[in-house]
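User: Fold this one for me? It's Large ribosomal subunit protein uL23.
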Amino acid sequence: MADLKYYDVILKPVITESSMSVLDEKKYTFIVHPAATKAQVKDAVEKMFAGAKVAAVNTMNYDGKPKRRGVHFGSTPKFKKAVVKLTADSKDIEIFQGM
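Assistant: Here's what I get for Large ribosomal subunit protein uL23.
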């Protein structure tokens, strides 16, 4: 288990058409630290956003895509994405409200 503080777990929100379409179901999508566990993501969301109560966390690991520039090969960085579902009686997360 990684020794991460709650403010180091969530890196940034995911703002895409598919992630915005599930906001009505109280599902929020974040890019999280690759070593973060589901329990750490739940703890971070509840501490960072007042009034949020997490019902479930689903995480996905993504490998980097292969890229090429001339004869040099490389790849984009790998990342971890988390979809957080809030309970029905919890408050909404404000950073997504203006979208």
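One thing worth pointing out: The helical segments are 6-9, 17-21, 38-48.
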